[in-house]
Amino acid sequence: MTPFFRLDAPDLSPLAEALGIALAIRGTAFHHRITMAEPELTIRAGDEEILSDGLLMLDRIEALHPDQPLYPRDPDRLLRLRADMALLAQALARLDRVTRARDPQDLDLAVHGLRQTLRLVQAQDEVIPLRARLTGADPLLAPLVWRLLILDAAFGLHLAIGFDTLVSRGRWLLARPEVAEVLTPARAARLLHAVARSGAAVAAVRPDWSGALGPEAGRRSFPPEAEERKFHPLAARLRSISDHR
Fold first, then answer.
1. Separation CA 122–CA 230 (nearest Å)
2. pLDDT tens for each residue of 183-212
3. What's the confidence (pLDDT) of residue 182?
4. Which of 2, 51, 95, 134 is the least buried, fewest Cβ under 10 Å from its Cβ?
5. Which pTM does this prediction carry?
6. What SS3 class is residue 26?
7. Using CA atoms, how far apart are residues 156 and 22, in angstroms rounded to an integer?
8. Which residues, other chains included, contact 11 with Cβ-Cβ below 8 Å and sequence gap of 6+?
9. pLDDT band at 243 (very low <50, low <70, confident <90, very high)
10. Could you tell me if 85 and 101 are in contact, meaning their C-beta atoms sit under 8 angstroms apart?
């Protein structure tokens, strides 16, 4: 019996992206029902389960795909991987604080906290393996680096400066088709639109983020959601972000 997965979560939830990538790597269908509530994953694989912890969700996806493992079998390495995954989840939460900061002081504090966590993330062997192979940390790492690069391109934040190893790993992931089908240009446009529309302090750093979309964006700062897929310059920019060669 093929397991059924449905996540109830906000549209731009990084957890939804992580689960989508973890399942796309395995070729398993994934249903995202957009809600405003805290994320919940419903799994039907015989009995029905409902999970609210993001790391447990990824653990269950791993357990239900025994022929396509991303976790190491060695118990010590597995413990390190799960600790590193928790660190990545913390980095995503701190990046969310960056985009929610409402004044320059809060923004500075949020960026400082994010960079501290990114330093720890970049130092982990399970996050940045020696070989080009997929790991259990990758579904969380890809949305993190994707967001860093997009926010840097749009608002000139330089969040990724100093994290070349992390970004290099992220670019390798973003070039993979399983990741690209989740982290799409249309999703990037919605993310930028949401951040700018929210009144976040990051948007005041460079109020006109049309440079991230290219010259065809013209004078429109915030593209209507119905037209997001028409912004081909953004797609080109994201392809350059994904190009790790």
1. 35
2. 999 999 999 999 989 989 998 865 444 444
3. 95
4. 2
5. 0.84
6. helix
7. 30
8. 34, 190
9. low
10. no
